[in-house]
Amino acid sequence: MAATLYLASGSPRRRELLTQIGVPFVPLSVAIDETPAPDETPAAYVERLARGKAAAGLASLADRQAVVLGADTTVVLDGRILGKPGERAEALAMLQALGGREHEVLTAVALAAVGRSAVRVVRSRVAFRPLTSAEAEAYWATGEPLDKAGGYAIQGFAAVFVSGLEGSYSAVVGLPLCETAQLLAEFGIPCWQQQ
């Protein structure tokens, strides 16, 4: 019997991306502490969170054939992790800092099954054109920045700010599809399944 894939994420974007490549899954709600550890590098941070979500999801299941996918995305500017802004001033400061510059987006995807786990970290570079404070205010007013790493969604209204992208578009959205498909294949879960 084929393994059941569980997605340990509440992100609608990750659900859409898995559906896009024809992989059925069962959504799973997990909660882990997302506070960066002292002196933790951004790459170690996203890897720890992705692994933690997958492991927490697996621990919550009685299904011994389960495979759990966990993922995490963070925006990095000048070596500093830009998380999800908690309020307007923080979001506006992030957008102003990103304007006219290039930043890094790190996304980790992890799979966990009984006795086995694997992870990949994908790095992408995103360039923003310069932003005016009026544009940052108007973007904040859309409501989109609130639950997004770095305070923006490349697949949403913020697409107009992006002047360049080097790497994986889907990773910037929240799930690197090429690497995810490779990991899933290693765990016996094919893409393009008939739904």
UniProtKB/TrEMBL annotation:
Keywords: Cytoplasm, Hydrolase, Nucleotide metabolism. It is an enzyme of class 3 (hydrolase). Belongs to the Maf family. YhdE subfamily. This is dTTP/UTP pyrophosphatase. It holds the Pfam family Maf. Nucleoside triphosphate pyrophosphatase that hydrolyzes dTTP and UTP. May have a dual role in cell division arrest and in preventing the incorporation of modified nucleotides into cellular nucleic acids. It catalyses: dTTP + H2O = dTMP + diphosphate + H(+); UTP + H2O = UMP + diphosphate + H(+). It comes from the Bacteria. The gene is maf. InterPro entries: ITPase-like_fam, Maf-like. SUPFAM superfamilies: ITPase-like. Its EC number is 3.6.1.9. It is found in: Cytoplasm.
